[in-house]
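ok new one. same drill as before - structure tokens go in, u give me an amino acid for every spot. 120 of them this time. try not to just spam alanines like last time pls lmao
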């Protein structure tokens, strides 16, 4: 459907930078047209399911859904997964480091450190 617009009347609303001031747009723009479906910031956050923020912090609840047998963090080549109470750090399919629930760290290679390594 095409709708005619009286550009002569609309042109009077354009500011010196060629923009239409928000005050001229007096209707709520629906979500289906790329709007927020709201007239206020608070209503827009509600409509878009966005938490509110205050200063440098955000408040609200964000549901997190983790599926699969174990939560994991995966990048292009590395992954970190939990398996049987152990944290596994892998490169591809090769386990490089295992951290047990007791805190014991096992690696299949030597450990390099910039300073002294000590233990009990």
């Amino acid at each position: 459907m095409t709708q005619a617009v009286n550009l002569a009347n609309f042109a009077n609303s354009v500011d010196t930078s060629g923009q239409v001031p928000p005050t001229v747009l007096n209707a709520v723009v629906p979500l289906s047209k790329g709007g927020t479906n709201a007239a206020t910031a608070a209503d827009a956050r509600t409509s878009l399911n966005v938490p509110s923020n205050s200063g440098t912090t955000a408040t609200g609840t964000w549901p997190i859904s983790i599926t699969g047998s174990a939560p994991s963090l995966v990048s292009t080549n590395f992954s970190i997964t939990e398996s049987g109470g152990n944290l596994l750090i892998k490169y591809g399919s090769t386990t490089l480091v295992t951290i047990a629930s007791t805190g014991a760290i096992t690696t299949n290679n030597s450990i390099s450190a910039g300073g002294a390594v000590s233990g009990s």
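The chain has a mean pLDDT of 75. and btw The longest strand covers residues 78-83.
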